[in-house]
Specification:
single chain; mainly alpha; two-stranded antiparallel ribbon; 9 helices
Length: 234
């Protein structure tokens, strides 16, 4: 019980935010990763984890039965759930993917702004652990374990100030990466290489054109970026 008490005190105790210049520096580093193809390719797997995890969380929240999640080496993924094939629950499940990383980033920014950078990292570890039990292929298993290992190393070896910077960098990355994935989605749709994309599924479910759904997804992600960024720089 004493160990649990010390752990909870560490997680729940607010830490001071890093200086504004450092937060801008990690934001620039996150932007560099997003804009540099050689760095974006491996880092995009983290966004896919958030994307598919959001599908899974919303599917469970609306009463669907989650049948498994797969992550692929080309940074694509697949979340399979069973339940009613139409209706609001299915619409929310489909819409969760491309908005999930941004909404996770917004939630992370809120925790960071409240001073809970250390708690934020442990919350991420808990979410990764929940996701792990739903992974159904080896590449997905390796990806989630590797991501969790990096976050765990940061919580284990970095001082609180270092953990705060790491948490800020990861939050910036999610916020900045989410709009780019929507832009990539539309590029793939224009090349007709994504005919069964989330936007096209939403169009079939609602009758609203897929391009309009792309606009909605992009608007949500940009809104999260602006709001989350203001909270981070507070």
């Amino acid at each position: 019980m004493d160990v649990l008490g010390r752990f909870w005190a560490r997680v729940a105790t607010p830490v001071d935010a890093p200086p504004r210049e450092w937060l801008l520096a990690v934001a620039a580093a996150a932007l560099l990763v997003v804009l540099t193809p050689a760095l974006w390719r491996p880092a995009r797997t983290v966004v896919t984890i958030a994307h598919e995890g959001a599908h899974g969380l919303v599917a469970l929240a609306v009463g669907r039965r989650l049948a498994g999640i797969r992550l692929h080496s080309d940074t694509s993924g697949l979340t399979v759930s069973a339940g009613r094939p139409t209706g609001p629950g299915m619409v929310l499940t489909c819409a969760a993917g491309y908005t999930g990383p941004a909404l996770f980033g917004l939630g992370a920014a809120a925790l960071f702004a409240a001073g809970y950078a250390v708690g934020l990292l442990w919350a991420l570890l808990a979410l990764l652990a929940l996701l792990l039990v739903q992974i159904r292929n080896w590449f997905g298993l390796w990806s989630v374990l590797a991501t969790g290992a990096v976050v765990l190393a940061a919580t284990w070896w970095l001082p609180p100030s270092g953990q705060a910077l790491f948490a800020a960098g990861l939050t910036w990355f999610l916020l900045l990466a989410a709009p780019k994935t929507v832009v990539e989605l539309q590029r793939a749709r224009r090349r007709r290489s994504a005919r069964d994309s989330d936007a096209d599924q939403l169009a079939r479910l609602t009758g609203v054109p897929a391009l309009a759904w792309v606009g909605v997804l992009l608007a949500v992600d940009l809104g999260c970026l602006l709001l989350g960024g203001s909270w981070l720089l507070g």
